[in-house]
Amino acid sequence: MRFSVNKKEIAEAVSNIQRAVSTKTSIPALEGILLTAGEDSLELCAYDLELGMTTVIPAKVSEAGKSVLSAKLFFDIVRRTPDDTITISVDEKNMASIESGASRFSIIGIPAAEFPELPKLSDSTKLELPGNILKSMIRQTVFAVAESDAKPIHQGSLFNIENGALDVVSVDGYRLAKRTEPIAFNENLSFVVPGKALVEVMKLLKDTEDAAEISAGQRHILFKIGSYTVISSLLEGEFLNYKATIPATSKTNVTMRTREAIESVERVSLLITDRLKSPVRCLFGDGEIKLLCTTAMGRASDQLTVEMEGDEVEIGFNNRYLLDALRNAECDEVKVGLSGPLSPMTVRPKEGDSFLFLVLPVRLKNE
User: Fold this and answer.
1) β-bridge pairing 125-130 and 313-317
2) Is the pLDDT of residue 70 over 90?
3) Phi, psi values for residue 341, rounded to 5°
4) Strands 65-70 and 85-90
5) CA 179, CA 167: separation in Å to the nearest integer?
6) pLDDT tens for each residue of 82-94
7) DSSP state of 353
8) Which of 82, 148, 178, 218 is deepest in the core (most CB within 10 A)?
9) 5-24 pLDDT, tens digit each
């Protein structure tokens, strides 16, 4: 195999692809990137047996072929080569030569036959979404994916299509995040994508309306984004019935400026550390929210003016969950709904219902 490529193009491709390279494995080929030189292109592929990524870049190929090179070493070399053009050749003993300007490297490759094959999708259903919409839907929900493996199905986000609307939902037992968009798709469809795969998809998506293609199979999902494809196993199991957990009404409705609320919670959270945990006590009443936090380090209080209707309520929250909901709202004002000190708080946009966050309260001790 022998080919020449542009340094910038291959460095960017390897930088993105290597995120699907396995870091803990007994199969050496999985720590590498499979290079396949075709007629006038080079395909790069990484796969950790759960998540696979491929991309194609232009190349001047003088001899077609395949080989696997160590991902980390290969990336370090192509990133630091002195010239804009890199020439790579691999002999029949899988010895790879990498040349650029005055720089020369010889590294040991792995036979392509040892690289596992990517899964093939059977009976897949295709749908398309503008890339910027899909990126926003993932960004506003992936933060609430469960980190613990107590319920593996909740380590992913549910994609649920019903009546021409797509809901993306994440839940971790303490909070829920739901994002809704209309979609030109007539069937009902439901599948759960691992959070790890969604984070990689989000990094590849651009803030443009270029279409991202999703192919959902029985056990795998494939995302096509520009010249990249991402394939992942789907999660199996019973996802939470999220529609049943969303409160229908609220006894207290509050509209507040998002930025002001974030800054206020951040200030009182300065006393909270990994070692010194304490809820943020929020007292909603008389058109304002009083925030209070007490730890062994001291006591902090703050307040902000809001528009409010309904009952006064005193409620406590984990500061991180509260901040996650406010920071991911991505709008100037939010509408908060409360139904007492032990019911979940809802956070919605001031206008419309494109997203919904639920945050469970913390039981407060009387001071």
Assistant:
1) unpaired
2) yes
3) -70, -15
4) unpaired
5) 6
6) 999 999 999 999 9
7) -
8) 178
9) 999 999 999 999 999 999 88
